[in-house]
């Protein structure tokens, strides 16, 4: 492969502080930059959400996109973001934080070699946190079934 992963995903919000705090509190993100993208431009918050991955948040005051939710596969070119947890323990910690924040019901689904927990950030953007499934069986890769490892 010529690529090592995703460098960044850019999103728009009307409340940069709220969105920034969510990713800091839930995922331990660090803030690399918070200020105008260019002189006179919109506020741009660069959040480090992984060793080589950023979430670039642009604050547009009158943006109402978060108020218009559409079902999966009807959201445009980017449907949702999948974030990769460092390990199973960290995945569990992130899941607990998301439940506490009211961002997910905590359901963990097996998708073959991965475990997945969907959530919505404060702007209601659909996201997913994933980790390698230690119980994956190459002869019986389950897709879309609840994981017995995690209960509500």
In short:
By secondary structure, the protein is of the alpha+beta class.
Topology:
Elements: E1 8-13, H1 16-27, E2 30-36, E3 43-50, E4 53-59, E5 81-84, H2 88-100, E6 109-111, E7 114-120, E8 126-132, E9 143-146
How would you sum up this structure, described in words?
The structure is a single chain. 16% of the residues lie in helices and 35% in strands. It contains two helices and nine strands; from the N terminus they run βαββββαββββ. A five-stranded mixed sheet has the order 5-8-7-6-9, with helices on one face. The longest helix has 13 residues, at 88-100. The protein is globular and about 55 Å long.
Observed structural traits:
152 residues; alpha+beta; 2 domains; 2,3-Dihydroxybiphenyl 1,2-Dioxygenase, domain 1; 35% strand
């Amino acid at each position: 492969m010529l690529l090592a992963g995703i460098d960044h995903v850019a999103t728009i919000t009307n409340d940069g502080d709220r969105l920034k705090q969510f990713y800091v509190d839930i995922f331990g993100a660090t803030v690399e930059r918070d200020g105008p993208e260019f002189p006179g431009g919109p506020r741009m918050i660069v959040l480090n959400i992984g060793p080589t991955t950023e979430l670039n948040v642009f604050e547009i005051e009158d943006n109402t996109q978060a108020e218009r939710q559409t079902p999966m596969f009807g959201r445009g070119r980017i449907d949702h973001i999948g974030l990769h947890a460092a390990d199973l323990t960290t995945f569990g910690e992130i899941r607990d934080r998301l439940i506490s924040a009211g961002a997910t019901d905590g359901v963990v689904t097996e998708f073959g070699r991965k475990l997945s927990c969907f959530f919505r950030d404060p702007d209601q953007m659909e996201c997913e946190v994933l980790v390698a499934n230690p119980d994956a069986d190459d002869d019986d890769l389950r897709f879309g079934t609840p994981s017995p490892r995690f209960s509500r």
